[in-house]
TrEMBL record:
CDD domains in alphabetical order: ASKHA_NBD_FGGY_RhaB-like
Record keywords, A-Z: ATP-binding, Kinase, Nucleotide-binding, Rhamnose metabolism, Transferase
Pfam families (UniProt xref): FGGY_C, FGGY_N
Highest taxon, organism lineage: Bacteria
UniProt-listed PANTHER family: GLUCONOKINASE, SUGAR KINASE
Annotated InterPro entries: ATPase_NBD (IPR043129), FGGY_C (IPR018485), FGGY_Carb_Kinase (IPR050406), FGGY_N (IPR018484), Rhamnulokinase (IPR013449)
Signal peptide bounds: none
Domain Carbohydrate kinase FGGY N-terminal residue range list: 3-245
Family: Belongs to the FGGY kinase family.
Domain Carbohydrate kinase FGGY C-terminal: 256-445
UniProt key word GTP-binding: no
Protein name: Rhamnulokinase
Amino acid sequence: MNMIAFDLGASSGKIYLGSFKDNMLNLKEIYRFQNSCIQMNGYLYWDIISIYANLEKGIRSCIQESSEPVVSMGLDTFSNDYGLVSKSGELLSCVHCYRDKRTQTHRQEIDRILSARERHFLTGNQIAPCNTLMHLAAMRLEDSGFMLDYADKLLFIPDLLTYFLTGCQISEYTIASVSEMFDFKTGSFHPRILDAYHIPDRLLPTVTMPGTVVGNLSNALCEEWNTDPFPVITVCEHDTASAFVSAPCEESSVIISSGTWSLVGIEMDGPVINETTCRYNLANEGGVPGRHRLMKSVMGLWILQEVQAYYNAIGMDISIPEMVQKAEAAKPYQYLIDPDDPIFFTPGNMPLHICKKCELLYNSAPSGVGELVRCVLESLAFKYRWAIEALKEATGMSLCDIHIVGGGSNNRLLNQLTADICHRTVYAGPENAAAMGNVIVQLIAHGQIKSIEEGRSLVKETCPAVVFYPREAEAEACEEQYKKFVELISK
């Protein structure tokens, strides 16, 4: 049987054709397109029209490529962003990017309505400027709040794209759970949050669990593509949740979904909300039933992507692998930064931001690409260890190895630094983890496999992990530098 998996990230969109035959899982990338936020008049937006047009092209290509009828498709994307739809089904406005400055502008006013602490204990979510709630609250505090009163429905990006394909409107659980508006106790949106920020509850469709058939492709699209109707299934629509599904790990493993963001987390039976999760700003996030996630969001390879974008913009074309190669030759532990410093959150001249921060901390700055990239990668690995220590403290669990999945699992230097600095064996891969998880949930929905464990066994056979062991020779230096890093970020 053949299935389509759409995986939209902050830097690219990928459409895969997944096949399951003779108890073997195969995933083939059929179509890819570039994706990035667009700055216009001081605001950041996604080109949702272009995203949808590319989605259509990808689906058509998969139908043409498939040797047998496609039986279903699933969509997963980054979280928090949404479109507002009228009663007639029209998209009412541009789709803002989660990095848009409007939430930072109104942060103090938003916190005065309900404190960050109160919101964390109500929702279990991290408090972050990217959260859906922050953007809706900012709309109320600006002159665009009227749109919330006029709109009929708010649809998160994967639900919006599903609506364009099927005409059906839902809020998928994993992506709703990270909006800072969700109540894990009731499994629905939290009335206290909605009332406080004047968000009409009619905007939010019924929460739907992963593995649910939403509806078939519209008749118009089936006719245009000369295909029989097939259903769209709610997979774990939050791409991090999908990536975690495919991580071939054991209990008590740490999973890092490494890409534009680095999401450092563990799987739990249910939410963990306490003083420690509040202090460390940890996030409770929904997953496949029985696989709740407790997470720490780290800025991730976004910083590296922005460094590359700056160099390319000034005519110094350089790839990420070339940057990492230069970092390997640079002297270790010269400069460390906190990757989650707000200065690194928005697009801009990232090398300048890093150098300014280092000047402030060290009275000197990285010289050249190698030192700059080494600074970023070492800092990320130290922040991973800090996040793991926070997860241990919040849960009392004894955490063992680390599984790195997603595009960042190809970064061998970061993988080795993570093993050395965290004193844990690192298993890297699969690279296309979100798409793998997407297909696994579709297979479970079709009754082809019985469980996530069975799906992970398929991933192990399909994509054997690359293993990185902590080097004993690095242990003393790593320990000394970690103490310096903790002191640095505590300031």
